[in-house]
Amino acid sequence: MVAVLEQTFRDEWGRVLAALIGFLGDFDLAEEAAQEAFAIAAERWPRDGRPDNPRAWLVATARNRAIDRVRREQTLAAKTPLLAAQRAVEETMDIPTERDERLELVFTCCHPALSTEAQVALTLRTLGGLTTEEIAAAFLVPDTTMAQRLVRAKRKIKLAGIPFRVPPDDQLDERLAAVLAVVYLIFNAGYGGRSELAAEALWLGRALVELLPDQPEPLGLLAMMLLHDSRRDARQRDGDLVRLDDQDRSLWDVSEIERGRAALDRAMALGGRGPYVVQAAIASLHADDPTDWPQIVALYGELERLTGSPVVALNRAVALAEVEGPAAGLALLEGLAGDLDGYRYLHTARAELLRRLGRSGEAVAAYDRALDLDLGPDDAERRWLEQRRAELVAHPPA
Length: 398
Prior knowledge:
By secondary structure, the chain is mainly alpha-helical. 71% of the residues lie in helices and 1% in strands.
């Protein structure tokens, strides 16, 4: 039953919380009520069995607990509309579950009145169910800083009366970029190991495409996520990371690749050439065998012009090394040291290119620099770096 409860939490947290925030209009009250409902489930389900509709049971239980709390706090006057709702027996309450309010929640969390950092943190907290400590680790800030950031964000939503809804059509474009960025960050958090977060991001991507069927960038984001997710089962072997070139392609999910390419084709047919569409095109080329590296270099160049991102420039350097050799890629990387010295993938990429050039001592130093930087909870990446370094020390090129 413990496993069932854990799986239910992973599958249902975002939907339960979205439904509660939509009903209660209060992030803190909704979160506390959801936590209480999951705690009650942990007590009752082992004894009474898992209900037929666990999500409805959790929403009903949480809603009733929230109403009880409002009563206890004697704020009846302000909360009268809540009490008008029919109270029913928890396990049998008829809560409509076909309506999914996660899209409303993500647009609320990504309101332009909030900073980008607050948007991402609040979405990870509400939809992803990440703890404050996990989000703080992802942002490389102290736990107290993140806790304060979340409190301020929720307070701002409440005081400003930010509505819980998908914005009207005339406001969608200005809100879309933030939502797409947050959905992609949720996917990345899940791609590193928490598959339920990746599934959440894919659901949001499909919901955005359904909402905006003629917009190429949501299609591009969905295509990119599907293409990356198709390689999930091949990315690790016995808990260790496997580089793209060394992955067992028979483990790739062909149906996800096909769905990703279909979404990409549709985005391009709509004239899409934005950052997500270009990244999806790169991901699609990586699914080919052999890989068309010159085309990937060209697309990274296009993406760099669109974003001005030094991280994109790093990726272009790695791709260029496949076309013109490691010296050409390394020359580009050296020019990025000022912008990306604290970014571990710069040092990982340098180490790999120096290794290919036979400059073992410099490569070992680059691996050390990457290992010195915070790797967070990703033990698989740390092991991979340590293995590569150990192999180089044990068997340096002649």
